[in-house]
Amino acid sequence: MIEINTLATGSTGNCYWVSDGSTSLLLECGISFKAIQKALNFRTSDIEGVLVTHEHKDHCKAVQEVADRGLDIYMSPGTKEALGIQHHRIRAVENKKQFQLGTWTILPFDTEHDTAEPFGFLLASQSGGKLLFLTDTYYCRYKFKGITHLMIECNYSYKILSENVNSGRTPGFLKKRVMKSHFSLENVLEFLKANDLSKVQEIHLLHLSDSNSNEQEFKQAVQAATGKLVYVP
Predict the structure, then answer these.
(1) What DSSP line would sit under 13-80, residue for residue?
(2) Using one digit for the tens of pLDDT, what is the confidence trace for 107-123?
(3) pLDDT at position 172
(4) Are residues 93 and 108 in contact, defined by beta-carbon separation less than 8 angstroms?
(5) What is the span of the domain harbouring residue 198?
(6) What pTM did the predictor assign?
(7) Of 44, 42, 62, nearest to 52 (Cα)?
(8) Which of 56, 78, 166, 171 is deepest in the core (most CB within 10 A)?
(9) Number of neighbouring beta carbons within 10 Å of residue 218
(10) CB under 8 Å to 231, separation ≥6 — which residues?
(11) The 15-19 sheet, strands edge to edge
(12) How far, in Å, are 41, 136, 146, 149, 183 from residue 152 at the CA level?
């Protein structure tokens, strides 16, 4: 059984702990290692590895600390180069080339974000669960089968963003950047419609914008579209 624990999500920092009951991993390390330790009651020694999607600080702030503490960190070659941190614990993994971490088989895949080489990750457990982690992308070209758990960014809605721009609350120049770097509610709903959700047990909506989202509205919309259990951490 897959367990998901959100330690932090949003523009101030992202970090998630996931386990299949045998192997635990961190997805992102965008908060300090001290904050990670505190959130996990200082049980970090059994973490098998850390997956990082891209080089923005809210996703990789603690890379140096985490590496120094002896945890292996996996990311794309482009992200590794963009970070510029030389450490034997930082490992570059290739796009669409599977690798193993404990009882997880992990498939990195390319996403669409304003960074060097951003990744999403599909994690398949030997116990049968399959977790899709997809954040900081405005589009996903791939379709997935057999997903049991979905962690997906739902950053903003076109409606709220447009209202905020028109009212002057959000600067107009930011609208284009947001739309070309983050997943909107509308695109999330299209993505869900295009994929096989027959085995999905849980959907976690991540990285909601502070000003361009509505937690209750987003949760209700995804629940209505999928009939699945939806969490907004």
Answers:
(1) --EEEEE-SS-EEEE---S-HHHHHHHTTT--TTEEEEE---S-HHHHTTHHHHHHTT--EEE-HHHH
(2) 999 999 989 999 999 99
(3) 77
(4) yes
(5) 3-231
(6) 0.95
(7) 62
(8) 56
(9) 22
(10) 202, 203, 204, 205
(11) 3-8, 15-19, 24-27, 47-51, 73-75, 90-92
(12) 26, 9, 16, 10, 8
What are the Cα distances from residue 36, in Å, to 46, 115, 197? 13, 25, 31
| Total number of domains constituting the chain | 1
- Tell me the two tokens of residue 204: 């976690």
Burial of 30-68, coded b for 16+ CB within 10 Å and e otherwise, reads bbbbebbeebbeeebeebbbbbbbbbbebbbbbbbebbe
Whichever domain contains 156, its CATH number is: 3.60.15.10
C-beta pairs of 34-41 under 8 Å, 24+ apart in sequence: 35/7, 35/8, 36/7, 36/62, 36/66, 39/5, 39/7, 39/8, 39/15, 40/5, 40/7
Share above pLDDT 70 across residues of the chain, in percent, rounded to a whole number: 100
CA–CA gap between residue 24 and residue 205 (Å, rounded): 21
Return all residues near 223 (Cβ < 8 A) that are at least 6 apart. 229, 230
Q: CA torsion, points 38, 41, 45, 47, in degrees to nearest 10?
A: -80
* Size (the chain), residues: 233
pLDDT tens digits along 23-69: 999 999 999 999 999 999 998 999 999 999 999 999 999 999 999 99
* DSSP strand pairing (130-134 vs 119-125): antiparallel
What does the block give as tokens for 217?
């509205």
One-letter amino acid for residue 141 of the chain? R
